[in-house]
Structures are given as C-alpha cells and as structure tokens.
Amino acid sequence: MTRPDRAVGVLLGAAAGDALGVPYEYGSRPLPPVGESPRMLGGGLGGYAPGQWSDDTEMACVITRIAADGADLRDDAVLDRVADGFLGWYADGPADIGNQTRAVLSGGRPGPGSAERLRQRAVAVHARTGRSAGNGSLMRTGPVALAHLGDAPAIAGAARAVSALTHHDRHAGDACVLWCLAIDHTVRTGELDVRVGLEFVGPEWAQLLDDAEQATPGRFASDNGWVVAALQGAWAAVHGARSLEDGLVAAVRGGGDTDTVAAIAGALLGARFGGSAVPVRWRRVLHGWPGLRAPDLTRLAVLTAQHGEPDGEGWPAAPTIPSYAGASSTTVAHPDDPGVLLGAVGALRAGVADAVVSLCRLGAGQAPLDGVRPEDHVEVWLVDRDDANLDLPRVLTDAATAVRDLRAEGRTVLLHCVHAETRTPTVAAAYGAMITGTTRAAALQRVLAVLPSARPRRSIVEGLLAGEAE
Ligand SMILES: [Mg+2]
C-alpha cells in the first residue's frame, strides 16, 4: 500500500529539490544562515518564479509523460519520442539549460530517427570537447526507474539509452543506471541500498560510493556539475538524512549546482520517504513547464509506475471516481472555526469555499475545484487503512497546517474525504488542537459531537494522538 506513495515521491521529491535549489544555484543568492531553512524563492540562473522547477524537472516531465502511456523506454520508436520531446522542450526556449545538453539539442531535428541523430551529436560533442560527463542526464533519470520497476536489466538498459541521447561519456550512463536501480529498490522495499546496481557499472563506483558516505555534500561542491561528483554529493545528502526535508536541505546547503544535486537526491529521498513527505507548503507552490503542478506529477508518477494502467476505478486518469457517487453533500462548521467546513466528497461543488483540502483520491477533473486557485486546492495522500501510511502523524500534522495556512491567508476551507468518517474528523481534530492549544483528544471529542458521519478508524486516531507532541 505504501509503494504508490514512494513512486510518487520519485517525481515530487526531485521537483521539490529542484525548486528548493534554484534560488541558490552556483551562488545566485547566499544560502541562509544555519538554523534558517532554504526557501523556494525562485530566481537562480533562469530567473524562475517562486516554486518553479527548472530544466531538471522539465526534462524529467518529457520522459514521464511518455512513460505514463506504458511505453518501453528501450524501444527505438519510444526513444525517438523522448528525443522529440527534448527537442520540443528546447524549442520552447527553456530559461536555463546545461552547456552539453544545449550543444546536443541545438541543431537537432525531430521526427523518425531523432534518437539516433541526437546520439551522434552527443558523440560529436564528446569528440570535440573530450568531456561529456555533465550531470544533465542524471538529473532527469528518476522516471526511467518508475517505468520499469522490478526489472533490473530493463532499468539498466533504459537508463543508459535515455542518458545517451545527450551524454556520451560512460560515467553519465553509469550514474543513471546506478541511481535508477537504487530508486527501484527503494520504491519496492522501502530500504536504501545504493549498491544494488554495482554489477551493471564500472568497478570504480564502489570506492566512489564509499567516499561519498564519509563526506558531506559540500565536499563535492567545487565540481558537482560533473556527474560523478553530483551523484556523490546527492548520495552524501541522502545517506545521512532523517527525513526528506532534511536530505533536500543538506543537498542544497552543499552548494555548487544546488538545484541539480537536490533534484538527484530528491528522487531517491522521495522513494524512501514518499511523496507524502513533501510538505504541503512546498507542494502548493511547485509548478513548471509544461504547465504542470504537484498533483499532475502525482498522477504521472502513478501511471508511469503502473505501465500506463489506471486502477479499477480509472484512477488517476479518469475525470471522476465512480464509487464516490451518492456521497453526502452536507457540510458542518468546524467546532473551533466556522470558516472551515467539514464534509464528504459530495460537498465538493463550486462555491462551497474559497479553498479545499482533499484527504482522499480525486478524479483528474475534480481538482482544482471550479473557482478555486490551483494552489488553494490541496490534495493530501492519506489512506484510510491500517498500516497504509508511511508517516501518519506527520501527514496529519501537515494537513492540519495546510488548513491553518489557508485560513491565515483569508480563505474559507472545505476539509473533506470520501464519507467524512475517519480522515476528515482526525485532521479536523489536529487543526482544532493547533488553533486552540487543547489536546488532540479533546479536539476530537468536539469534532465528533458535530459531525454525525464520523466514526474514525482506531489506527488513524492512534496516529493522531501519537503526533500530539509535535
Ligand atoms: Mg536546473
């Protein structure tokens, strides 16, 4: 049950690292003093908006949009589609692009055979410059692992093939293979093991990984535009991380090519801690080419990891979810704040509130709700089953914080799940405790007194109470 959350984390974690690192790329802005967190301020080398991701995630989007159809990334025709996608992105005039990637894509021609033509251009760049081991193929490689989960030879083949479209040097291909196999292992098992792919790469990597584990990301800052140092810096950040946020901050604080090292680290951190570990305050602002936001990355990651197949309800591709038909449309005011309405998914209708916090899956056509800004419709990954959430106390607190933030911004908020039985009352209780200073148990009693549908699952209430001390 936690595997889809981990798969989503691969894309969301990378995008979050990218947007978090953008403001500080190559010293564009001084890092905040220790004790103060880096923020998604935008700027950087591409003059990005706050929360906007850069070329790293843009190129990953090209790959995942193709893989989300169930395409095999080793197939020649599919590689042509990826090459065409890269060329289309380049034609759109990206605000920032690596030197090597630009040298290959500028002058490239789309259409049948485009992958082979790009490969030849990458060979020529390598021959001309003597070096083509930039970090530009590693930064976008996460979706390749999702497309072939559980099939190590396929992942190794696809990672090398997609890398070679722009990067001829063997180290670039090796790094993509190693990182994708680590991501695959972590998505499937929850365990970090960066060495699972060593048999597919050159013998020097074992020592390079050992060295990374003895260091902090800053040790590699002086040359982390080079793929080997970028991977080492990312692994140094992931290896020592207690949480996704912790690891991304460490990667950014390492300096140098901050957005790319954090994007690389973020793919593996997300595999470990899940998309649900990317805080709502980040997911609300994340956005970028080609006109996507965090919920779009969620849907693309799920479809990529499922070979393009939606589940029995058509999720996440279908516009609505059939089993939600008939859910109650009534709402009740939160007992501690009448500006927050509590309800079931039937309450999700235009005009109900200025903002929405959804605690269940939604059809692709249900969010953002009509009249609600995309950043004001928050989708929280919270599963109403026992042992199905990677870090339940953290997610409940994060959801309650989202309600509090939206209220502080002057919005009225609809807080809902499918039937307002478990998730709505528990998050409502976390929010009530947060704004009143009473215990979560007492806040839950107040919510239960006004919300007739509430009959919260015991394990979720235990998660609520376990998060009390935070
Ligand atoms: Mg970038």
Key phrases:
470 residues; mainly alpha; ADP-ribosylglycohydrolase fold; Protein-Tyrosine Phosphatase, Chain A; 2 domains; 5-stranded mixed sheet; two-stranded antiparallel ribbon; 18 helices; globular; binds magnesium ion
Q: Summarize the helix and strand pattern as letters.
A: HHHHHHHHHHHHHEEHEEEEHEHHH
Would you tell me the structural class of the helices and strands?
mainly alpha
The H-level CATH homologous superfamily of the largest domain, spelled out, is ADP-ribosylation/Crystallin J1
Please, how many helices?
A: 18
Q: What percent of residues are in strands?
A: 5-15%
Mean pLDDT: 97
Query: What would CATH call the architecture of the largest domain?
Result: Orthogonal Bundle
Through-space gap between termini: 25 Å
Shape: globular
Domain module tally: 2
- Give me the CATH fold name of the largest domain: ADP-ribosylglycohydrolase fold
Helical content, roughly? 40-55%
Quaternary structure of the protein:
single chain
Summarize the structure.
The chain is mainly alpha-helical and 470 residues long. It has helices at residues 3-21, 55-67, 76-91, 99-105, 114-129, 142-147, 152-164, 170-189, 205-213, 227-239, 244-253, 258-273, 280-285, 294-305, 392-408, 423-436, 440-450, 458-466, and strands at 287-288, 292-293, 331-334, 337-343, 355-358, 377-379, 413-416. It contains 18 helices and 7 strands.
Please characterize this protein's 3D structure:
The protein is mainly alpha-helical. It has two domains: 3-305, ADP-ribosylglycohydrolase fold, CATH 1.10.4080.10; 322-466, Protein-Tyrosine Phosphatase, Chain A (Alpha-Beta Complex), CATH 3.90.190. The protein is built from 18 helices and seven strands. It has helices at residues 3-21, 55-67, 76-91, 99-105, 114-129, 142-147, 152-164, 170-189, 205-213, 227-239, 244-253, 258-273, 280-285, 294-305, 392-408, 423-436, 440-450, 458-466; strands at residues 287-288, 292-293, 331-334, 337-343, 355-358, 377-379, 413-416. The strands form two sheets. It has a five-stranded mixed β-sheet with strand order 3-4-7-5-6. A two-stranded antiparallel sheet has the order 1-2. α1 (3-21) crosses α8 and α3 crosses α5 (114-129). The longest helix is centred in the middle third of the chain and has 20 residues, at 170-189. The chain is globular and about 75 Å long. The model has no long low-confidence stretch (mean pLDDT 97). Magnesium ion binds at residues 54-56, 96, 259-260. The site of magnesium ion has 6 residues, from α2 and α12.
